[in-house]
Design a protein that fits this description.
The protein is α+β, with helices and mostly antiparallel strands and 91 residues long. The protein is built from one helix and four strands.
């Protein structure tokens, strides 16, 4: 199954990047470059979603990118996570 959530990327004063997911509470990532931060955000979202699904918790609704609050210089990217359900996972 494919899950797509927006992530907000912010360039810090020391030219690294931080990221957070408005819809995934407590899900953060960082990287020395934007590419690295996007890669780390993908991994963080995959881990976050995996834990929620394993604990049989409902996933949050996805925010529309146009509704995400941004600071100057922030960039929003949709992060796509592919999650494979195994046979009998819901039994």
């Amino acid at each position: 199954m494919k899950f797509i959530y927006p992530a907000v990327f912010h360039k810090t004063e020391n030219n690294t990047y931080t990221a957070f997911f408005p819809d995934l509470e407590g899900c953060y990532a960082a990287g020395d470059t934007l590419e690295e931060a996007v890669e780390n955000a993908n991994e963080a979202a995959a881990n976050w979603i995996s834990v929620e699904l394993e604990e049989d918790l409902p996933l949050p609704s996805v925010s529309d990118i146009r509704d995400v609050q941004l600071q100057e210089g922030d960039e929003v990217r949709n992060i796509c996570v592919n999650y494979r359900f195994y046979e009998g996972w819901d039994e």
